[in-house]
Automatic annotation (TrEMBL):
One of its GO terms (cellular component) is cytosol. This is Helicase/UvrB N-terminal domain-containing protein. Residues 2-189 form the Helicase/UvrB N-terminal domain. GO terms for molecular function: ATP binding; DNA binding; hydrolase activity. It comes from Tersicoccus phoenicis.
């Protein structure tokens, strides 16, 4: 049978534990999506080969029972191939038949009983259970027949459901007096910890590439309502569908449609969610939204079973708890949890619905190899739950199993060794060097000793060389050299200009809002990898952001909001003349934003919000006098300065912030490490730059870099960053705390940089350069997006 390595290891442990006489209860803890179905089939095959003829698979409910029956039914799409023994399937629907009755008394027939635990429990006074009733074909009741079978082995799927405290469930299984009870689960109950003989965690499965990579998706603009959350999830599903389709067309693989899976708190919540998803702004087709609860019809359950079929119309499945276990499909692309994922078990059970790989392997396309969990309401708590994935990893040397390593464990260790990991120490022999004597400095020296001395000399020289290389900081591979147009003062001719708020100025200010502003969906993967020691390390990794959905506002409403802001600043008297002037300025402002076009009838909410702030800035700036402008000459310098000393204490970019600390793990930084003086400005800027698809490279500037702007006072201004966007525009960037924005020296530096950018662009020799001044407020209003930051900072 085609078993994955963890399943082989689990099977070997099971064989080692149950091979001798006496009752054995063992549990295998395998992460969802790794293949417990294949392990169960392999256990049945092994037992059959050992002469066992009575095997009972107990499931917690009908969903898993139907799946299990399909797994052992040749011709079913869910059938597990590769077995040499074909059992007779016996269920609650067919056991009361003559053929089954004959087989029960035939010791040579391999019988596989598949029952839910509810079908096995002892009936109450006012209920009945068919398996405990007298049956003429059996000659007794089926439950008693199973009790009398001396070779009965029970496989308990989702073993945690039958924990010792659940007396009725537990008794129904243990009163059968089986020879062995084998539990399979992805979330074992703590009370069963001593029974766990093999463990393979979700973190290990992610690291070994056996399941999808979970990606937490959230937005930072404060919109946490359900409608926004579902709109973003539907958009992500559409993006994933395009990726699935493109990859399948290019490779000739079968077409697969990704599905949105929504988990609700109650049946009423599920019904409301399904109705919302059927609307035009979401899935847009009631027939494409499947609601599955305890009240669902057989037709809905049948549609659920075929949701993986290429011709299935289903694009969204809405459920309560009915599907958190046993629904094993591979095309869940996006998950929305309306209920809080308060426990480790619930997190893995719900997340597990989307972990299975659609093509059975990772294909190298992030949108296919990941499952997105849209979690606007509590994303930080969900990110913190990555620790729950680590808690269930058994540390090296603390295996849940005892005894000698199995052949499969040896295979795992061999794979680690091939990857450069050595965790087995063998007894060493003795090696002696033999060489003829040599003459060194006039003295005869043993040849072997001379070779050893030479080896030490070479090693010492290599160590010195490696130390120098390690301490030297260079650009990352592929990073560009930046030519910074430093402008130095030569003469000081004086020019003075002053303008009022005329239509041209208003149109120019409005031009910054000519395009819609994307709200980014932040996507952070919980990636796992194996370390050199063989254990698993989980870290957050930034993914390409998505685009959040937003409301649309009529142009009339936008205009009204702009006029209200202009008149509400308190800078003008309340008069008809000022009212008319406000209308004129607003008309020119929206005209500059392209609102005269006939097709311009609605604006996105984010665009409208920033436009209101933009006209506010325009009005305020026109009350400020323009200062004098000296004249300068350009003397370009090259960035970064190379080489420079490599810092020794470097931390991951997601580590806690410390001023002056160096951080690594950036995707777009010219240098592999960067340090910051402030968390809410400089480090926040770095995170936005590194995560934006519109930024190609960025460089954190240091006070000793040659990139500075001369001030009229004779001082020098050293900005924080240089960035290059996706169209080749260079950005000189400064981040400043809100309480420092109004300082006179800060305003002087800001004005100097704006003037510098104008002169650089007018010169035409250095490409396009722009200056971006970011207050903490602008950074907050950006919601983590570069486009939004440009607008919030007034630089769009």
């Amino acid at each position: 049978m085609d078993l994955r390595t963890p399943n082989k290891a689990a099977l070997s442990r099971i064989v080692g534990e149950i091979h001798d006489d006496g009752f054995h209860e063992v549990v295998c803890d395998l992460a969802t999506g790794v293949g417990k179905t294949y392990l169960a089939a392999a256990v049945v095959e092994y037992l059959a080969a050992q002469g066992i003829r009575n095997i009972l698979v107990v499931t917690p409910g009908r969903t898993i029972q139907d799946k299990t029956i399909a797994n052992f039914s040749p011709g079913s799409p869910k059938h597990v191939p590769g077995a040499d023994h074909q059992p007779l399937l016996i269920t609650a629907e067919n056991f009361s038949r003559g053929q089954v009755g004959d087989a029960l008394h035939d010791s040579g027939t391999l019988k596989l009983f598949v029952f839910t635990v509810q079908q096995l429990i002892r009936p109450a006074a006012n209920t009945s259970r068919r398996v405990r009733e007298l049956d003429e074909f059996i000659g007794g009741d089926l439950y008693s027949h199973l009790q009398s079978a001396d070779d009965l082995v029970v496989i308990a799927d989702e073993h945690h459901v039958y924990r010792s405290q659940a007396k009725a469930f537990s008794s129904a299984i243990r009163d059968l007096n089986p020879r062995a009870l084998i539990g399979l689960t992805a979330t074992p109950d703590p009370a069963d910890e001593s029974k766990v003989i093999y463990r393979y965690s979700l973190a290990e499965a992610i690291a070994d590439g056996l399941v999808k990579i979970p990606v937490i998706v959230y937005r930072q603009d404060g919109h946490h309502d359900l409608a926004t959350q579902l709109a973003d999830a539907c958009h992500l599903r559409t993006v994933k569908a395009a990726a699935y389709r493109t990859w399948a067309d290019a490779t000739g693989e079968r077409a697969i449609n990704p599905v949105l899976f929504v988990v609700c708190q109650t049946v009423q919540h599920a019904r409301e969610t399904a109705d919302l998803l059927a609307g035009e702004a979401y899935i847009g087709d009631p027939a494409a939204v499947l609601e599955v609860t305890s009240q669902s019809s057989d037709t809905a359950l049948q549609a659920l079973a075929s949701v993986e079929a290429p011709d299935s119309p289903i694009r969204a499945v809405v459920s309560v708890d009915k599907l958190k276990e046993g629904w094993d499909v591979k095309n869940i692309g996006v998950i929305v949890a309306r209920r809080r994922l308060a426990s480790e078990a619930l997190t893995e059970q719900i997340l597990g619905r989307g972990l299975r790989l659609p093509y059975g392997r990772r294909v190298g396309v992030p949108m296919i190899d990941t499952v997105d969990l849209v979690a606007h309401d509590s994303y930080r708590k969900l990110l913190e739950q990555k620790d729950a994935l680590i808690e269930r990893i058994v540390a090296p040397g603390e295996s849940a199993a005892t005894g000698e390593p199995t052949d499969v464990e040896a295979e795992l260790r061999a794979r680690q060794h091939a990857a450069g990991q050595v965790d087995l120490v063998q007894e060493q022999g003795t090696l002696r060097l033999v060489a003829p004597p040599r003459v060194i400095d006039g003295e005869q020296v043993d040849g072997a000793a001379a070779l050893i001395l030479k080896e030490y000399e070479v090693a010492e020289a290599e160590g010195r060389r490696d130390a120098v290389e390690y301490r030297t900081l260079h650009r990352v591979s592929g990073a560009p050299v930046i030519r910074f147009p430093r402008r130095e003062r030569e003469v000081l001719p004086v020019r003075f200009s002053l303008s009022l708020i005329d239509d041209a100025d208003a149109r120019a200010a409005g031009a910054a809002f000519a395009h819609e502003i994307r709200i980014p969906l932040i996507r952070e993967a919980l990636a796992a990898r194996r370390t050199r020691r063989g254990d698993v390390e989980i870290r957050r990794e930034a993914q390409d952001p998505g685009e959040a959905r937003q409301a649309w506002i009529s142009l009339d409403q936008v205009t009204t909001e702009l006029e209200t802001r202009v008149l509400g600043l308190g800078l003008v008297e309340e008069s008809l003349a000022e009212f008319n002037a406000a209308r004129r300025v607003v008309r020119a402002f929206v005209a500059g934003a392209g609102a005269e076009a006939d097709s311009e009838i609605h604006w996105g909410a984010e665009r409208a919000h920033h436009a209101v702030r933009g006209i506010d800035v325009l009005i305020r700036q026109k009350y400020n006098a323009r200062r004098l402008q000296p004249q300068y000459a350009f003397r370009p310098v090259t960035l970064p300065v190379e080489p420079r000393p490599m810092p020794t204490d470097v931390r991951d970019r997601y580590a806690d912030f410390e001023r002056g600390r160096w951080y690594s793990g950036w995707r777009k930084s010219v240098l592999p490490v960067a340090s910051f003086d402030a968390k809410t400005t400089e480090r926040r800027l770095a995170e936005i730059l590194d995560g934006s698809p519109n930024i190609a490279w960025w460089l954190r500037l240091q006070p000793n870099d040659p990139a500075f702007i001369e001030l009229d006072t004779g001082g020098r201004y050293f900005p924080d960053f240089v960035a290059v966007d996706s169209v080749g525009i260079h950005w000189l960037i400064e981040g400043k705390a809100d309480h420092d924005v109004q300082r006179r020296d800060v305003e002087a530096k800001r004005e100097a940089a704006q003037e510098w950018a104008r002169f650089v662009n007018d010169d035409g020799s250095f490409g396009t350069w722009r200056y971006l001044f970011c207050s903490e407020e602008a950074l907050r209003n950006s919601h983590g997006g570069w486009d939004s930051l440009l607008v919030a900072a007034g630089a769009a």
